[in-house]
């Protein structure tokens, strides 16, 4: 996919979805193919806070406003941002979108979905410290936590008519990335309202 044309509003691409559906992998590919894009991975941002391992969830609550400020500051420089982050709360999602739009960006919401999230999560490589923390959070949660997240996200996606819904399959990241580029490209060709 080619870069956006000069004079177009910066893009904030939010990849939303349950753990292990491919958000971070897709975001990394997007940033790689679109030089100058800020890859704002909030789970990685948590690791910048000393003691984050003791309470990963509470650290996330503290760094999300920081992430929003980073997003807005980067967009204000006329630059694109990709955010791979599970946000299942409509009010929280609105805070991210509102900050992006107030800074002059075009917000694109993508719900990344997968039918096999339980098995994908169970076999996920947790080589990064923040991924191990997510694994522990899910392990300590009720057994149907991932299914509940998927249901909440599906309801949020249904209530967001302009969102892209992207289905991913384990081991088929290239096909998922191609579908993402195509869907964002179609939206990008639509004039801002």
Key features?
globular, 12% strand, alpha/beta, 193 residues
Q: Would you kindly provide a written description of the structure presented here, covering whatever features stand out?
A:
With about 190 residues, the protein is an alpha/beta fold. It has one domain (about 20-185): 3-Layer(aba) Sandwich (Rossmann fold), CATH 3.40.50. Helices cover about 50% and strands about 10% of the residues. It has eight helices and five strands, in the order E-H-E-H-H-E-H-E-H-H-H-E-H. Strands 2-3-1-4-5 form a five-stranded parallel beta sheet, sandwiched between helices. The model has no long low-confidence stretch (mean pLDDT about 85).
Topology:
Elements: E1 11-16, H1 23-33, E2 38-39, H2 42-46, H3 56-76, E3 81-84, H4 90-102, E4 106-113, H5 117-122, H6 129-140, H7 145-158, E5 164-167, H8 173-188
Parallel strand pairs: 1-3, 1-4, 2-3, 4-5
Helix pairs in contact: 1-8, 3-4
């Amino acid at each position: 996919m080619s870069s956006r044309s000069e004079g177009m509003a910066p893009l904030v691409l939010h990849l939303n979805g349950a753990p292990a559906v491919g958000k971070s992998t897709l975001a990394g590919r997007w940033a790689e193919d679109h030089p100058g894009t800020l890859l704002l991975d909030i789970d990685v941002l948590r690791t910048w806070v000393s003691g984050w391992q003791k309470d990963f969830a509470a650290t996330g609550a503290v760094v999300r406003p920081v992430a929003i400020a980073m997003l807005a500051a980067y967009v204000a420089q006329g630059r694109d941002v990709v955010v791979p982050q599970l946000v299942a709360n409509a009010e929280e999602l609105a805070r991210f979108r509102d900050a992006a739009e107030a800074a002059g960006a075009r917000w694109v919401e993508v719900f990344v979905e997968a039918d096999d999230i339980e098995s994908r999560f169970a076999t996920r490589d947790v080589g990064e410290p923040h991924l191990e923390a997510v694994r522990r959070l899910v392990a300590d949660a009720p057994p149907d936590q991932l299914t509940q997240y998927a249901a909440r996200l599906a309801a949020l996606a249904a209530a967001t008519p302009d969102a892209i819904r992207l289905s991913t399959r384990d081991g088929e990241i290239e096909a998922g990335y191609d579908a993402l580029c195509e869907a964002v490209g179609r939206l990008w060709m639509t004039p801002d309202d």
